[in-house]
Amino acid sequence: MRWPDRRLLDLLQVEHPIIQAPMGSCTTPEMVVAVAEAGGLGSFSTARTPANEIGEVVAAIRARTRKPINLNFFCHAEVKPDPIRDDAWRRRLARYYVELGVDAPGTSAIRDPFDAEMCDALVAAAPEIVSFHFGLPDASLVRRIKDAGCVLLSSATTVEEARWLEHHGVDAVIAQGAEAGGHRGMFLTTDVATQVGTLALVPQVVDAVEVPVIAAGGIADGRGIAAALALGASGVQCGTAYMFCPEATVSPVHRIALRAARDDSTAISSVFTGRPARSIANRLMRELGPHPDAVPQFPMASAAVRPLAQAAETKGSPDFTQLYAGQAVTLCRGA
Amino acid sequence: MRWPDRRLLDLLQVEHPIIQAPMGSCTTPEMVVAVAEAGGLGSFSTARTPANEIGEVVAAIRARTRKPINLNFFCHAEVKPDPIRDDAWRRRLARYYVELGVDAPGTSAIRDPFDAEMCDALVAAAPEIVSFHFGLPDASLVRRIKDAGCVLLSSATTVEEARWLEHHGVDAVIAQGAEAGGHRGMFLTTDVATQVGTLALVPQVVDAVEVPVIAAGGIADGRGIAAALALGASGVQCGTAYMFCPEATVSPVHRIALRAARDDSTAISSVFTGRPARSIANRLMRELGPHPDAVPQFPMASAAVRPLAQAAETKGSPDFTQLYAGQAVTLCRGA
After folding, report:
1. Contact between B270 and B247 (Cβ < 8 Å)
2. What pTM value is reported for the model?
3. Would you tell me which residues 253-292 of chain B have a C-beta closer than 8 angstroms to some C-beta of chain A?
4. If you ran DSSP here, which 8-state letter would residue A331 be given?
5. Domain ranges for chain B
6. What is the CATH code for A1-76+112-249?
7. How far apart are CA B135 and CA B200, in angstroms?
8. Please, which pLDDT band fits residue B108 given cuts at 50, 70 and 90?
9. Span B1-76+112-241: which CATH code?
10. What is the DSSP letter of A30?
11. Scanning A69, A176, A197, B92, which has the fewest C-beta atoms within 10 Å of its C-beta?
């Protein structure tokens, strides 16, 4: 296989310019290994991995592949506890607790932002590539990661974000179009209504930055890859396609929803975590509206919704589960 | 120039698989002639042309080119007058009438849907190609148009709409991705939140229908055209790019907004006409929200907004003007 643009291949030291998106909900070490061994870039999301377990996960991957790997981190701003808004959110969900016969959770969990402790774990794990979502951490932490020799990636949803990332030191920009499943990487804007589709976003980002651009959002087969390269991207990042792989951990209700989804089954909503993310539209999204005022800041919304999702799933219902998927979902089902 | 896929070229009898989008607000006979003579398909929108003037417009175009041309029609459902909703809408705008010192208009105009009289004018004008927006007219009218030998096109915003159009007789489907400027062609759904980006929509439509697919939305230069063909489209339809041509009638405030717009400057809103359309976000969209409950059915909303737009424009303000643009707007400005 000969690729026309070697910039990303040389940067990442991979055979194919295809990045498996780091999906906190479904990526396993097995998936990372399989993608790496096939010549792509396997990515492990640390969204659900505490700092003190990162070394162990990376060791498990390293034991099975010598190829470069990508560790991905959320770098949202620190969130202060907000009991008033938290209470308002639980009141908003009160009728669902009653309906499903579950107790409202006491307080929402705080997910620490990317900090010095996480950075220590990262540097110790020494992944070849590090990617961030929601911008970049503090400049001092970025400096440590780059001094450790890691290639640095982050996602941009607008030209302005792409320019900001380049200015702050990324080695390549992931241009995340509005079609993408999962959390929007947006960090200089909160306006979901103006998020840009991949076909329009990629060439505008390519024109705006010098670093290689990775296209993401709506890409699930060779046609999408060819289109992304035609737009000027040096490679692609695919997510939803990998949710159909045997290495993915996808719950039964989610799997059923993925197999039934149509091109227009997904929407962007903040109800599950407090941040906009694309998933298959379901009852909670429809009944609360996509971005209710009461929803707490990321990731504080999650704790109050999780017991509902768990209770509903035991009855086979996807009504309260965040059913991550991108808009190219029907292309992912294969033969 | 050799194009890899000749299906659309043979169907439309044009040299290049590039359709100039029919834009009611800015397309002139001169633009249609220029595009046709350059080997593309020029399209004239009849959105602002009464049935009894269509023959004259087509004659003006025919006098200057022998190439095939496309006449475009809206085929929204008939709207009954709804004085209560109309009043609510004018009350919603009342503070703006006061601010700008204009009188609230008395009653909103009814724009007739595509009917037998319009069909008579169409058949008499005998365009080689006819395209519709918002679905298709009654089957009897579709039959007359096809019996007259016209090639029939219409826009789909979802796979379901594409299948419906093929089943109802179109010769090619325009897959209108969410990036597109102007009115969404949606007719089997009213849910803007689930509209699909071009990169994801095109291959899913290509997989779903037998007829050629024309990609639209976010395409403004050769990269977008190459990407669309890689996705399986047989051609493209471009709109915003033509708004920068000397043949376009674009008001001064609109022209300034187009030149200042960024990739994330546009949003989809119903406030100007009652139907969702993408335009550069401005004060009216921001203050009323994108889809206010009070907005009358298409096209009844327009009459109440128009005096505000006119008064503001005389002061050089774009606050109340529908500033049509797609998300690839920055690619259109050229050198």
Report:
1. no
2. 0.97
3. 262-268, 281, 290
4. G
5. 1-76+112-241, 81-110+250-335
6. 3.20.20.70
7. 21
8. low
9. 3.20.20.70
10. H
11. B92
